[in-house]
Amino acid sequence: MAKPIAVYNDVHKSFGDVEVLKGIDLEIAPAEKVALIGPSGSGKTTIIRMLMTLEQPTSGTIVVDGQYLWHMEKNGELVPANEKHLRQVRGDIGMVFQHFNLFPHMSILENCMVAPINVKGVPKKEARERSAEMLEKVGLGDKLDDYPSQLSGGQKQRVAMARALVMRPKIMLFDEVTSALDPELVGEVLEVIRDIAKEGEMAMVLVTHEMDFARDIADRVVFLDEGRIAEQGTPEQVLENSKSERLNSFLSRFR
Ligand code: ADP
């Protein structure tokens, strides 16, 4: 396997007294598409939020693109990456949330331009061109000057995707991006993710309850259960030939 783009090594996470991740070991290859599935509360979101540096582990090591994001000293102390590396990681990772988190007072073009200009120092003209191109790609090329309030939920989610893609991330994280949408809008958003996945070069980690979608686009499906990786493998192995009772029972809810 090529050098992984992200590695979790014995990662634990507690909120107060509750341990929600109980030793996660996970490697993500460049360009690999990983679907994270599992019951609500099993820790899926926490896993991807840690890559985005939105949560810090309680113990363990996370490496992104060959550099520590967090690592444990011999004395058990958890040491974060330095500011420079943290900034770089945040620039290399794009995340799309369940709720779109767009800036309401900016046009959708401006929404996409903010991060490249402020975080990566991209000149304004180039940021505008890149943003327009990305909005075109997600099917919103005719709405550049619209404000988020003028758009449907599916369109807003596509803006959120364009906004993340404009940063040209090495890893894209998708956190249940269709769960807040009306059912008739889910398809258009999944279609855009499929298109992005087909282009190939980015790693993707998708927390999803859309099992057909996971089967279609994932190279690997990881089943998380009570803070542990309980099973993983190809979509066929995990979704069609699952070994454990827990996984079978989880999957039966989607059949
Ligand atoms: P999933 O994405 O699989 O639904 P999460 O990673 O969101 O699971 O949450 C795992 C557990 O951690 C849940 O029990 C949730 O309530 C808890 N949790 C998540 N974030 C916080 C937080 N900031 N403070 C306290 N508990 C949290």
UniProtKB/TrEMBL annotation:
<dbReference type="InterPro" id="IPR030679">
    <property type="entry name" value="ABC_ATPase_HisP-typ"/>
</dbReference>
<dbReference type="Pfam" id="PF00005">
    <property type="entry name" value="ABC_tran"/>
</dbReference>
<keyword id="KW-0547">Nucleotide-binding</keyword>
<dbReference type="InterPro" id="IPR017871">
    <property type="entry name" value="ABC_transporter-like_CS"/>
</dbReference>
<keyword id="KW-1003">Cell membrane</keyword>
<dbReference type="InterPro" id="IPR003439">
    <property type="entry name" value="ABC_transporter-like_ATP-bd"/>
</dbReference>
<keyword id="KW-0472">Membrane</keyword>
<protein>
    <submittedName>
        <fullName>Ectoine/hydroxyectoine ABC transporter ATP-binding protein EhuA</fullName>
    </submittedName>
</protein>
<keyword id="KW-0029">Amino-acid transport</keyword>
<dbReference type="InterPro" id="IPR003593">
    <property type="entry name" value="AAA+_ATPase"/>
</dbReference>
<keyword id="KW-0067">ATP-binding</keyword>
<comment type="similarity">
    <text>Belongs to the ABC transporter superfamily.</text>
</comment>
<keyword id="KW-0813">Transport</keyword>
<dbReference type="InterPro" id="IPR027417">
    <property type="entry name" value="P-loop_NTPase"/>
</dbReference>
<dbReference type="GO" id="GO:0005524">
    <property type="term" value="F:ATP binding"/>
</dbReference>
<dbReference type="InterPro" id="IPR014343">
    <property type="entry name" value="Ectoine_EhuA"/>
</dbReference>
<dbReference type="InterPro" id="IPR050086">
    <property type="entry name" value="MetN_ABC_transporter-like"/>
</dbReference>
<feature type="domain" description="ABC transporter">
    <location>
        <begin position="6"/>
        <end position="251"/>
    </location>
</feature>
